[in-house]
Every structure is written in structure tokens, then in C-alpha cells.
Write a structure and sequence with these properties.
Length: about 100
């Protein structure tokens, strides 16, 4: 899994039928120090995440299984909304501090 920040949504009116009703999010990856990386990724949202929230992203067959169907053409799925990240006795991210 990897940490990412939700930057927006991706809307597609024409897509594979197995993806109908699946919300797609545009994510920007985050490194271990909490720095936003230049790399973006699109992932299916399974938890109702919103813009600017930090999330956990699962990839590969694990992402397909989350939505209950290994036949969906998914590479990544948002599987959790992050509340806090602590590394080496310091807070890298805190959701409650972000919205003050």
C-alpha cells in the first residue's frame, strides 16, 4: 500500500460496464516524510474519500478483490482514509490539524 493525497475526481461517461457506479479519484502520491510527489494515479474509491484527504492505496489483485470482482480492470483502489501518520516520534500528518 502507499499513502496518497486526493487531488480530484475523474469522470468518465463511457467506460467498461464493470466500472459503472465506481467513483474514480485522482491521487498524488506522498513519500515517507509527508512530501507530495509529482506522480499522479487514478484509483477506485471504496471508502468515500474526498478532495484533500490522505488515503491508503492498494494495488493489483488486492485492489480488484476489494470491490468483490477480480474481473474489473482496476490497478488501484483507495482502501482507507488516514487520520494520522506517526514516524520516529513525530507526526507526519494529522487530519484534525489539516482543517483548523
Amino acid at each position: 500500500m502507499q499513502v496518497a493525497k486526493v487531488r480530484g475526481t475523474v469522470v468518465s461517461t463511457q467506460k467498461d460496464p464493470s466500472l459503472r457506479g465506481v467513483k474514480l479519484l485522482l491521487l498524488q502520491l506522498v513519500d515517507e516524510d509527508g512530501n507530495i510527489l509529482p506522480k499522479y494515479e487514478v484509483a477506485a474509491d471504496t471508502v468515500g474519500a474526498g478532495v484533500d484527504e490522505w488515503v491508503l492505496v492498494s494495488r493489483g489483485s488486492a485492489a480488484r478483490q476489494i470491490l468483490g470482482n477480480e474481473q474489473r480492470p482496476l490497478d488501484a483502489a483507495v482502501v482507507a482514509i488516514i487520520d494520522t501518520i506517526h514516524v520516529a516520534d513525530r507526526v507526519i500528518y494529522s487530519k484534525k490539524d489539516q482543517y483548523r
